[in-house]
Design goal:
Catalytic activity: 5-carboxymethoxyuridine(34) in tRNA + S-adenosyl-L-methionine = 5-methoxycarbonylmethoxyuridine(34) in tRNA + S-adenosyl-L-homocysteine
Number of domains: 1
Protein name: tRNA 5-carboxymethoxyuridine methyltransferase
Distance between the termini: 42 Å
Strand order of the largest sheet: 3-2-1-4-5-7-6
Keywords: Methyltransferase, S-adenosyl-L-methionine, Transferase, tRNA processing
Strand content: 15-25%
Number of strands: 7
Helix content: 25-40%
Structural class: alpha/beta
Radius of gyration: 18 Å
Pfam family, one: Methyltransf_31
Shape: globular
Function: Catalyzes the methylation of 5-carboxymethoxyuridine (cmo5U) to form 5-methoxycarbonylmethoxyuridine (mcmo5U) at position 34 in tRNAs.
């Protein structure tokens, strides 16, 4: 097993992820969470790491708020795309770009950061627990982690809804080299346990695309998008919908040393 580098399918990734209704729902739902998370952090320009940040859409939004954002990605093509987007948005002065894996980014940081974004990366790397530990070490005490991962529950549900019963068994899932289907979906309880073992305090959980991907008619994804988005935002933080999201967004905090005294 090895970590996935998107150099070979960067254009396909941008077209099929960012430029779709599922990408818009993901952006809207996670941004709601981030807005609430930022309110709990120091009210000053923050030092933020977007680990595996891809094209940098979320990073640029944070930079527009005046925060200092370092984006790293294993893919050089993604780094170039993120830098171009930052230039187009006029936020380059608030951003840095480093081609590096999330696991190795600590050696490039001059000091720990207030907030780490780790979105849709965990399911593409061979040693996810080690990656979380490495990022934990990059956080300031009291800092926050915004982690979004591909949900094994949602994958199972989606395959059953589509009638792909043979794919319910993880041992026979497709492994197309250029596929955008994540390689290592994760069980929510396992991910939560990893965070808690690090000493992280989980403060929130949100399902991302709790309805969108299960619609029988794909036309409704575009024709009824505003209604669908409203429903997603209404139910995404309630069970059982959280645990059925195609992705789950978890917010967690590193304990403050003062709180432990």
């Amino acid at each position: 097993m090895q970590d996935r580098n998107f150099d070979d399918i960067a254009e396909k990734f941008a077209r099929n992820i960012y430029g779709t209704t599922k990408g818009k729902i993901r952006q809207a739902v996670v941004w709601q969470d981030l807005t609430a998370l930022l309110a709990k952090l120091p009210q000053r320009p923050l030092r933020i790491l977007d680990a595996g940040g891809g094209e940098g859409h979320m990073a640029c939004q944070l930079a527009e708020l005046g925060h200092q954002v370092l984006l790293c990605d294993l893919s050089g093509e993604m780094i170039q795309r993120a830098a171009l987007l930052a230039e187009q948005k006029g936020v380059s002065q608030n951003m840095q770009f480093i081609q590096s894996s999330a696991q190795d980014i600590g050696q490039h940081l001059e000091q720990p950061v207030d907030l780490i974004l780790f979105h849709a990366v965990l399911e593409w790397i061979a040693e996810p627990q080690a990656a979380l530990a490495a990022l934990f070490n990059c956080l300031l005490p009291g800092g926050a982690l915004s982690l979004m991962f591909f949900n094994a529950n949602g994958l199972l549900m989606r395959n059953v809804v589509l009638g792909n019963f043979q794919l319910v068994d993880p041992e026979v899932r497709r492994r197309r080299k250029r596929s955008l289907s994540p390689q290592y979906p994760h069980s929510p309880p396992q991910v939560y346990a990893w965070l808690e073992q690090l000493g992280m305090q989980i403060s929130g959980k949100t399902g991302v695309r709790v309805f969108h991907d299960y619609l029988q008619s794909r036309q409704l994804q575009t024709q009824k998008f505003e209604e669908l988005l409203a429903l997603e935002q209404l139910y995404c933080r309630q069970e059982p919908y959280v645990s059925l999201g195609r992705y789950i967004h978890v917010m967690a905090h590193k304990p403050n040393l003062k709180d432990e005294l």
